[in-house]
Amino acid sequence: MNLLVSLASALLMPLTAIAQTASPHAIEVPAWFSETFLDLREDVREAAKEGKRLMIYFGQDGCPYCKALMQTNFTQPRIVEKTRRHFVALALNIWGDRPVTGFDGRVVPEKDFARAMRVQFTPTVLFLDEKASEVARFIG
């Protein structure tokens, strides 16, 4: 019987991932994160003009680690001040559907961009230089 339950769970796992709906527990992103048209080529250029780099936060609704990052780390004045001084911060949802213009000029939903950037866990924070090259990645 246990073998049957395990097998059924393994077979149905992909279907549960497809059937997921948005969580009612959305993570509040700090107001100092930038709201852009999500043309990342333009965002990198604008950040460079300001002498900054691009920081992209990838999260998902209901993620307790995303919540901790936003409510603990990104509310500390020293972290906020330093991040705002050196980076333009953007937030993307790894399951989101907003259109993102990637560095190659293709427009894809957030979830496809996250997949293309090999984001598998949340939160993930990418730091990009003025040429849109990844210079650091923090996971968790």
How would you characterize this protein structure?
This protein is α+β, with helices and mostly antiparallel strands. It has one domain (22-139): Glutaredoxin (3-Layer(aba) Sandwich), CATH 3.40.30.10. The chain has five helices and six strands; from the N terminus they run ααβααβββαββ. The strands form two sheets. It has a four-stranded mixed β-sheet with strand order 2-1-5-6. It is globular and about 35 Å long. The termini are far apart. Residues 1-25 have low confidence and may be disordered.
Feature tags:
140 residues, alpha+beta, 37% helix, globular, disordered N terminus
Q: What's the CATH class, please?
A: Alpha Beta
Low-confidence stretches: 1-25
- The number of distinct β-strands equals 6
What's the CATH architecture? 3-Layer(aba) Sandwich
Name the helix and strand elements from N-terminus to C-terminus, one letter apiece.
Answer: HHEHHEEEHEE
Sheet/helix structural class: alpha+beta
Write out the strand line-up for the largest beta sheet, numbering strands in chain order.
Answer: 2-1-5-6
Q: How many structural domains does the protein architecture include?
A: 1
Q: What name goes with the CATH superfamily?
A: Glutaredoxin
Strand percentage: 15-25%
Distance between the termini: 37 Å
- Mean pLDDT comes to 85
What gyration radius follows from the Cα positions, in whole Å? 17 Å
Percent of residues in helices comes to 25-40%
